[in-house]
């Protein structure tokens, strides 16, 4: 059943009794050291750092976006028990940022460089001394600054404000784009297992703390039919901590044993098959052996928006969109705010109805941020009180100022 309600900004459609997702699942997750994840998280860190600086100095987040950042892989030399970087990783900082507020200069490049180096020092310390940073940061205004005389169009002040009074969003927040935010809940057991397994090998865990050779550029592709799981997993090893081919093989056996242990805990009634480092050719010493633990050392590239979605997964059989949320302005960029809001709203609707929930928020550029053009809520439950759904939707849309503060101050890492 569908009910469509006219809202102040557009339409809210509520579908009840919608079909639940089938058991068949295809899911991918990229770990902390994957080049695309590195690009996503670095772009978000730059946005947070710039936002915090401008809030502290001027009392507001000034206009910026770093969501076109890219990483170009370097080159390395890998040997058993050794290794080194032979060419640097190139960081292309592409985007826009206000360079001044009134007469006060903002040290944009200094902020960015400090954050880039701190990020790699923490995430991939072997790379931190082998970086080339290229700044492609402009302060050009968006389309719409039509000259009709000697007056300066307001739009040209977006990235060159005389004071924070020139920031229109301090009076009303308008969507910066016509875009889509998507969310759904709950995850099925296999999707949760994929998240946990990748984090277990790419982040800090008992396994990685006791197996220092384990690199962080982990990637998983999984298929699940409700009873059987088939997983293709890539887990690198750090060359200076692996003395021989035989030691590399023993380490892969440790990884596989850990995979089966976790599968037994999380998917106890399922048959789970694992294929690890499928491209290895042992007799030729063609192995997933790296100096840094990431393929960014040897030619691979990373680009914002090509990695995990806001919920941390890539799920082609689920509703999803292609927005790159990381690095976007946290005040009015719908590609970030609508995706986070849709995911959180879907989770709340799932908890309220004890069923599957799916949310789509569609913006129109220039329309009020809290008044989407289209809102689609799909619920598997048939017994739903429309008034409660409307109240949860309204509460979510009213929460954008608090979400902005959370993104700036608390340092949420997307995906």
From TrEMBL:
Single GO term (MF): transferase activity
Protein name as annotated: Methionine adenosyltransferase
Keyword Lipid metabolism set for record: no
Family (UniProt): Belongs to the AdoMet synthetase 2 family.
InterPro entries: AdoMet_synthase_2 (IPR042543), AdoMet_synthase_2_family (IPR027790), AdoMet_synthase_3 (IPR042544)
UniProt-listed PANTHER family: S-ADENOSYLMETHIONINE SYNTHASE
Keywords: Transferase
Source organism superkingdom: Bacteria
Pfam families: AdoMet_Synthase (PF01941)
């Amino acid at each position: 059943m569908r009910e469509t309600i006219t809202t102040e900004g557009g339409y809210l459609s509520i579908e009840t009794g919608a079909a639940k997702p089938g058991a068949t699942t295809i899911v991918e997750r990229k770990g902390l050291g994957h080049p695309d994840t590195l690009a996503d998280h670095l772009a978000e860190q730059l946005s947070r750092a710039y936002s915090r600086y401008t809030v502290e100095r001027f009392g507001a987040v000034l206009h910026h976006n770093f969501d076109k950042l890219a990483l170009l892989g370097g080159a390395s030399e890998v040997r058993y028990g050794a290794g080194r970087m032979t060419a640097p990783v190139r960081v292309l900082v592409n985007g826009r940022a206000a360079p001044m507020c009134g007469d006060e200069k903002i040290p944009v490049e200094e902020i960015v460089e400090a954050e880039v180096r701190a990020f790699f020092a923490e995430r991939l310390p072997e790379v931190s001394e082998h970086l080339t940073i290229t700044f492609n940061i402009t302060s050009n205004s968006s389309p719409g600054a039509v000259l009709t005389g000697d007056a300066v169009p307001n739009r040209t002040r977006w990235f060159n404000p005389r004071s924070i009074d020139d920031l229109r969003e301090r009076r009303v927040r308008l969507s910066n784009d016509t875009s889509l935010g998507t969310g759904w809940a709950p995850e099925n057991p296999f999707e949760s297992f994929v998240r946990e397994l990748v984090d277990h090998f790419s982040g800090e865990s008992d396994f990685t703390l006791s197996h220092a050779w384990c690199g962080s550029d982990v990637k998983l592709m999984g298929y699940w039919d409700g009873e059987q799981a088939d997983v293709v997993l890539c887990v690198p090893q750090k060359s200076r901590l692996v003395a021989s081919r035989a030691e590399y093989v023993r380490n892969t056996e440790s990884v596989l044993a850990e995979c089966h242990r976790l599968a037994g805990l999380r998917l106890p009634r399922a048959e789970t098959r694992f294929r690890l480092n499928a491209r290895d050719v042992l007799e030729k010493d063609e192995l997933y052996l790296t100096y840094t633990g990431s393929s960014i050392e040897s030619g691979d590239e990373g680009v914002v928006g090509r990695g995990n979605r806001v919920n941390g997964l890539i799920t082609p059989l689920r509703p999803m969109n292609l927005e790159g949320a990381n690095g976007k302005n946290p005040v009015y960029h719908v590609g970030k705010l609508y995706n986070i809001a849709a995911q959180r709203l879907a989770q709340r609707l799932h908890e309220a109805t004890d069923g599957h929930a799916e949310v789509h928020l569609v913006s129109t550029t220039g329309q009020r941020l809290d008044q989407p053009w289209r809102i689609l809520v799909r619920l598997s439950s048939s017994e739903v009180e429309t008034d409660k759904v409307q109240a949860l939707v309204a509460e979510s849309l009213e929460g954008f100022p608090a979400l902005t503060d959370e993104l700036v101050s608390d340092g949420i890492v997307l995906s």
